[in-house]
Amino acid sequence: MEMISRRKLASEKWCSVLCSVIEDELKNLPAKGSNWRICRASESIFEVHADLSVMVNLDKRFCSCYQWQLLGFPSQHAIQVIQHSGLCLYNFVDEYYKAEFYRATYATPIFPIPDIEKPPTGVKCKRCGCCDLHSRRTCKAPI
């Protein structure tokens, strides 16, 4: 419960659309591909010439390096294409990386479970009804 409370309070300080960790990750990725050449194949399909040639489809959120599909946010190739096209990067990140989704996750509190009296663990004797570590066969109570 303390962890949930800490995360909820920390998320209220965020000013970004995305969670802070993902925001930092996306800020660091564009520097890696600043010298790549981007060729438009169609309205939403691009080819990025890096060390290897990579295909990016913005409509299907697909990158042939498969990082976009695995992680849920654009790969470094897709980020270069999105910036080259003048589109908003936040529109291409999955919803569960957004701060609003994160806050909604921790909005509902988890209430503590009250202590419940545990039933007696000993086996009751069917003959006398006691739980004194004896059974019907070894019971010394009168019949």
Automatic annotation (TrEMBL):
Residues 52-86 form the SWIM-type domain. It comes from the Eukaryota. The keyword Zinc applies. This is SWIM-type domain-containing protein. One of its GO terms (molecular function) is zinc ion binding. Keywords: Metal-binding, Zinc, Zinc-finger. InterPro entries: Znf_PMZ, Znf_SWIM. It comes from Prunus dulcis (Almond).
